[in-house]
Amino acid sequence: MSEPQETERSRVLDGELRRHPVTKWLFLPFRWLYKVWFVLVFFGSLVILYIPFRILLKRPQRYYRAFRLKRVWASFLRRASGVSLRIERHAPLPDPPYVICSNHSSYLDIIQMYNVIPRYFLFIGKYELLKWPLFNIFFKGMNIAVNRGNTVEAAQAFRRAAQAIDRGTSIAIFPEGTIPAFTPRMKPFKDGAFKLAIEKQVPVVPVTFLDHWRLFGEPLEIMSRARPGVARVVVHAPIPTKGMTEADQIALRKQVYAVIEGPLLEA
To answer: Could you list the residue range(s) of the whole structural domain that residue 124 is in?
Structure first.
Protein backbone atom coordinates (compact mmCIF):
# COMPACT_ATOMS: atom_id res chain seq x y z
CA MET A 1 0.00 0.00 0.00
CA SER A 2 1.31 3.45 -0.90
CA GLU A 3 2.01 6.08 1.74
CA PRO A 4 -0.89 8.39 0.66
CA GLN A 5 -3.31 5.45 0.85
CA GLU A 6 -1.99 4.49 4.28
CA THR A 7 -2.32 8.10 5.47
CA GLU A 8 -5.91 8.24 4.25
CA ARG A 9 -6.70 4.92 5.91
CA SER A 10 -5.21 6.22 9.17
CA ARG A 11 -7.48 9.27 9.00
CA VAL A 12 -10.53 7.05 8.51
CA LEU A 13 -9.61 4.79 11.41
CA ASP A 14 -8.81 7.74 13.65
CA GLY A 15 -12.20 9.17 12.78
CA GLU A 16 -13.85 5.91 13.81
CA LEU A 17 -12.04 5.98 17.12
CA ARG A 18 -13.23 9.50 17.95
CA ARG A 19 -16.87 10.30 18.70
CA HIS A 20 -18.51 13.59 19.50
CA PRO A 21 -17.89 14.39 23.20
CA VAL A 22 -21.62 14.60 23.92
CA THR A 23 -22.16 11.10 22.52
CA LYS A 24 -19.28 9.80 24.61
CA TRP A 25 -20.73 11.13 27.84
CA LEU A 26 -24.23 10.01 26.90
CA PHE A 27 -23.22 6.37 26.57
CA LEU A 28 -20.64 6.37 29.34
CA PRO A 29 -22.96 5.00 32.10
CA PHE A 30 -24.01 2.13 29.82
CA ARG A 31 -20.37 1.33 29.09
CA TRP A 32 -19.57 1.24 32.78
CA LEU A 33 -22.54 -1.01 33.49
CA TYR A 34 -21.52 -3.34 30.68
CA LYS A 35 -17.93 -3.51 31.98
CA VAL A 36 -19.15 -4.30 35.48
CA TRP A 37 -21.45 -6.99 34.06
CA PHE A 38 -18.64 -8.47 31.98
CA VAL A 39 -16.21 -8.56 34.92
CA LEU A 40 -18.84 -10.18 37.16
CA VAL A 41 -19.68 -12.80 34.53
CA PHE A 42 -16.02 -13.50 33.72
CA PHE A 43 -14.66 -13.83 37.24
CA GLY A 44 -17.89 -15.23 38.68
CA SER A 45 -17.93 -18.10 36.20
CA LEU A 46 -14.18 -18.63 36.63
CA VAL A 47 -14.63 -18.95 40.40
CA ILE A 48 -17.24 -21.64 39.79
CA LEU A 49 -14.98 -23.46 37.31
CA TYR A 50 -11.75 -22.90 39.22
CA ILE A 51 -11.73 -26.24 41.05
CA PRO A 52 -12.55 -28.29 37.90
CA PHE A 53 -9.82 -26.42 36.03
CA ARG A 54 -7.31 -26.94 38.84
CA ILE A 55 -8.02 -30.67 38.80
CA LEU A 56 -7.71 -30.92 35.01
CA LEU A 57 -4.56 -28.79 34.86
CA LYS A 58 -2.66 -30.86 37.44
CA ARG A 59 -1.63 -33.42 34.82
CA PRO A 60 -0.71 -32.90 31.16
CA GLN A 61 -2.77 -35.98 30.27
CA ARG A 62 -5.87 -33.97 31.23
CA TYR A 63 -5.05 -30.87 29.17
CA TYR A 64 -7.34 -31.98 26.33
CA ARG A 65 -10.27 -32.10 28.73
CA ALA A 66 -9.25 -28.71 30.14
CA PHE A 67 -9.29 -27.38 26.57
CA ARG A 68 -12.81 -28.70 26.00
CA LEU A 69 -13.94 -27.05 29.24
CA LYS A 70 -12.35 -23.80 28.08
CA ARG A 71 -14.38 -23.97 24.89
CA VAL A 72 -17.58 -24.46 26.89
CA TRP A 73 -16.62 -21.52 29.11
CA ALA A 74 -15.75 -19.32 26.12
CA SER A 75 -19.09 -20.12 24.50
CA PHE A 76 -20.87 -19.16 27.72
CA LEU A 77 -18.93 -15.90 28.02
CA ARG A 78 -19.76 -14.96 24.44
CA ARG A 79 -23.47 -15.49 24.98
CA ALA A 80 -23.53 -13.89 28.44
CA SER A 81 -21.78 -10.79 27.09
CA GLY A 82 -24.24 -10.48 24.20
CA VAL A 83 -21.66 -11.02 21.43
CA SER A 84 -22.84 -12.67 18.24
CA LEU A 85 -20.05 -14.46 16.36
CA ARG A 86 -19.85 -14.57 12.56
CA ILE A 87 -17.00 -16.65 11.17
CA GLU A 88 -15.86 -16.50 7.56
CA ARG A 89 -13.63 -19.47 6.75
CA HIS A 90 -11.61 -19.27 3.55
CA ALA A 91 -10.43 -22.88 3.82
CA PRO A 92 -10.60 -25.83 6.21
CA LEU A 93 -8.05 -25.95 8.98
CA PRO A 94 -5.00 -28.05 8.09
CA ASP A 95 -4.08 -31.15 10.01
CA PRO A 96 -2.28 -30.15 13.23
CA PRO A 97 0.17 -28.95 14.21
CA TYR A 98 0.13 -25.39 12.89
CA VAL A 99 0.80 -21.88 14.16
CA ILE A 100 -2.25 -19.61 14.55
CA CYS A 101 -1.50 -15.89 14.15
CA SER A 102 -4.04 -13.14 14.66
CA ASN A 103 -4.26 -9.41 15.22
CA HIS A 104 -4.72 -8.35 18.84
CA SER A 105 -7.23 -5.56 19.36
CA SER A 106 -9.07 -6.51 22.57
CA TYR A 107 -9.04 -8.95 25.47
CA LEU A 108 -12.02 -10.56 23.73
CA ASP A 109 -9.53 -12.02 21.23
CA ILE A 110 -8.34 -14.56 23.79
CA ILE A 111 -11.84 -15.75 24.63
CA GLN A 112 -13.02 -15.86 21.04
CA MET A 113 -10.04 -17.86 19.82
CA TYR A 114 -11.54 -20.84 21.64
CA ASN A 115 -14.84 -20.26 19.83
CA VAL A 116 -13.12 -19.94 16.45
CA ILE A 117 -10.52 -22.75 16.53
CA PRO A 118 -12.19 -26.01 17.61
CA ARG A 119 -9.06 -28.19 17.63
CA TYR A 120 -6.72 -28.39 20.60
CA PHE A 121 -4.06 -25.67 20.77
CA LEU A 122 -1.90 -23.88 23.31
CA PHE A 123 -1.64 -20.13 23.74
CA ILE A 124 1.61 -18.21 23.92
CA GLY A 125 0.85 -15.14 26.03
CA LYS A 126 2.63 -12.28 27.72
CA TYR A 127 4.38 -12.92 31.05
CA GLU A 128 2.07 -10.46 32.84
CA LEU A 129 -0.78 -12.98 32.59
CA LEU A 130 0.88 -14.89 35.41
CA LYS A 131 -0.08 -11.99 37.68
CA TRP A 132 -3.80 -12.14 36.86
CA PRO A 133 -5.78 -13.62 39.76
CA LEU A 134 -7.45 -16.96 38.97
CA PHE A 135 -6.76 -16.67 35.23
CA ASN A 136 -3.05 -17.27 35.80
CA ILE A 137 -3.62 -21.01 36.37
CA PHE A 138 -3.81 -21.45 32.59
CA PHE A 139 -0.25 -20.15 32.13
CA LYS A 140 1.43 -22.05 34.94
CA GLY A 141 1.62 -25.31 33.03
CA MET A 142 -0.71 -25.71 30.07
CA ASN A 143 -0.24 -22.49 28.11
CA ILE A 144 3.09 -20.73 27.67
CA ALA A 145 3.96 -17.33 29.17
CA VAL A 146 6.73 -15.37 27.44
CA ASN A 147 8.88 -12.89 29.34
CA ARG A 148 10.11 -10.81 26.40
CA GLY A 149 12.12 -8.65 28.79
CA ASN A 150 14.38 -11.60 29.57
CA THR A 151 16.19 -13.15 26.61
CA VAL A 152 16.89 -16.45 28.38
CA GLU A 153 13.29 -16.91 29.58
CA ALA A 154 11.91 -15.91 26.17
CA ALA A 155 14.11 -18.54 24.51
CA GLN A 156 12.92 -21.15 27.02
CA ALA A 157 9.29 -20.30 26.25
CA PHE A 158 9.78 -20.74 22.53
CA ARG A 159 11.59 -24.03 23.13
CA ARG A 160 8.49 -25.19 24.99
CA ALA A 161 6.40 -24.12 22.01
CA ALA A 162 8.69 -26.04 19.65
CA GLN A 163 8.39 -29.14 21.84
CA ALA A 164 4.59 -28.79 21.81
CA ILE A 165 4.62 -28.72 18.01
CA ASP A 166 6.84 -31.83 18.02
CA ARG A 167 4.08 -33.52 20.02
CA GLY A 168 1.52 -32.52 17.38
CA THR A 169 0.04 -29.58 19.30
CA SER A 170 -0.85 -26.33 17.52
CA ILE A 171 0.23 -22.97 18.92
CA ALA A 172 -1.75 -19.70 18.97
CA ILE A 173 0.09 -16.40 19.24
CA PHE A 174 -0.51 -12.67 18.81
CA PRO A 175 2.58 -11.64 16.83
CA GLU A 176 2.07 -7.98 17.75
CA GLY A 177 2.93 -8.96 21.31
CA THR A 178 0.34 -6.65 22.88
CA ILE A 179 -2.78 -4.63 22.10
CA PRO A 180 -1.79 -1.50 20.15
CA ALA A 181 -2.85 1.88 21.52
CA PHE A 182 -4.03 2.76 18.00
CA THR A 183 -6.07 -0.39 17.33
CA PRO A 184 -7.52 -1.48 14.89
CA ARG A 185 -4.32 -0.49 13.09
CA MET A 186 -1.73 -3.16 13.79
CA LYS A 187 1.74 -2.95 15.26
CA PRO A 188 4.66 -4.53 13.40
CA PHE A 189 4.83 -8.27 13.96
CA LYS A 190 7.57 -9.86 16.02
CA ASP A 191 9.56 -12.68 14.44
CA GLY A 192 8.98 -15.51 16.93
CA ALA A 193 5.88 -17.09 15.37
CA PHE A 194 7.39 -17.19 11.90
CA LYS A 195 10.75 -18.46 13.05
CA LEU A 196 8.90 -21.24 14.88
CA ALA A 197 6.71 -22.13 11.88
CA ILE A 198 9.67 -22.30 9.50
CA GLU A 199 11.87 -24.19 11.93
CA LYS A 200 9.17 -26.83 12.38
CA GLN A 201 7.93 -26.64 8.76
CA VAL A 202 4.30 -26.24 9.85
CA PRO A 203 1.68 -23.99 8.21
CA VAL A 204 0.58 -20.62 9.56
CA VAL A 205 -3.15 -20.03 9.95
CA PRO A 206 -3.88 -16.26 9.85
CA VAL A 207 -6.96 -15.02 11.72
CA THR A 208 -8.47 -11.53 11.57
CA PHE A 209 -10.69 -10.25 14.39
CA LEU A 210 -12.61 -7.36 12.84
CA ASP A 211 -14.86 -5.97 15.55
CA HIS A 212 -13.50 -6.74 19.01
CA TRP A 213 -11.88 -3.30 19.30
CA ARG A 214 -15.33 -1.78 18.80
CA LEU A 215 -16.96 -4.00 21.42
CA PHE A 216 -14.49 -4.01 24.30
CA GLY A 217 -11.61 -1.61 24.81
CA GLU A 218 -9.11 -1.30 27.64
CA PRO A 219 -11.13 -2.16 30.80
CA LEU A 220 -9.36 0.40 33.01
CA GLU A 221 -9.83 3.33 30.61
CA ILE A 222 -12.89 5.34 31.59
CA MET A 223 -13.88 6.29 28.05
CA SER A 224 -13.04 2.99 26.33
CA ARG A 225 -15.73 1.18 24.38
CA ALA A 226 -17.81 -1.57 25.93
CA ARG A 227 -21.00 -2.95 24.45
CA PRO A 228 -22.58 -6.11 23.03
CA GLY A 229 -22.71 -6.60 19.29
CA VAL A 230 -21.61 -8.66 16.31
CA ALA A 231 -18.02 -9.95 16.15
CA ARG A 232 -16.84 -10.86 12.65
CA VAL A 233 -13.87 -13.17 12.30
CA VAL A 234 -12.00 -14.24 9.17
CA VAL A 235 -10.06 -17.52 9.28
CA HIS A 236 -7.77 -17.34 6.26
CA ALA A 237 -6.38 -20.19 4.20
CA PRO A 238 -3.28 -21.71 5.78
CA ILE A 239 0.09 -20.54 4.49
CA PRO A 240 2.49 -23.48 4.03
CA THR A 241 6.11 -23.24 5.10
CA LYS A 242 7.40 -26.50 3.61
CA GLY A 243 10.76 -25.84 2.02
CA MET A 244 11.16 -22.41 3.60
CA THR A 245 14.38 -21.51 5.37
CA GLU A 246 15.46 -18.80 7.77
CA ALA A 247 16.05 -16.58 4.74
CA ASP A 248 12.27 -16.63 4.08
CA GLN A 249 11.31 -15.47 7.58
CA ILE A 250 10.87 -11.77 6.78
CA ALA A 251 8.88 -12.52 3.62
CA LEU A 252 6.61 -14.89 5.56
CA ARG A 253 6.09 -12.31 8.29
CA LYS A 254 5.14 -9.66 5.73
CA GLN A 255 2.80 -12.07 3.92
CA VAL A 256 0.94 -13.02 7.09
CA TYR A 257 0.72 -9.36 8.13
CA ALA A 258 -0.81 -8.42 4.76
CA VAL A 259 -3.31 -11.29 4.89
CA ILE A 260 -4.50 -10.41 8.41
CA GLU A 261 -4.62 -6.68 7.66
CA GLY A 262 -6.58 -7.08 4.42
CA PRO A 263 -10.10 -7.41 5.94
CA LEU A 264 -9.35 -4.54 8.37
CA LEU A 265 -8.57 -2.24 5.46
CA GLU A 266 -11.79 -3.25 3.72
CA ALA A 267 -14.03 -2.97 6.80
So the answer is: 3-266
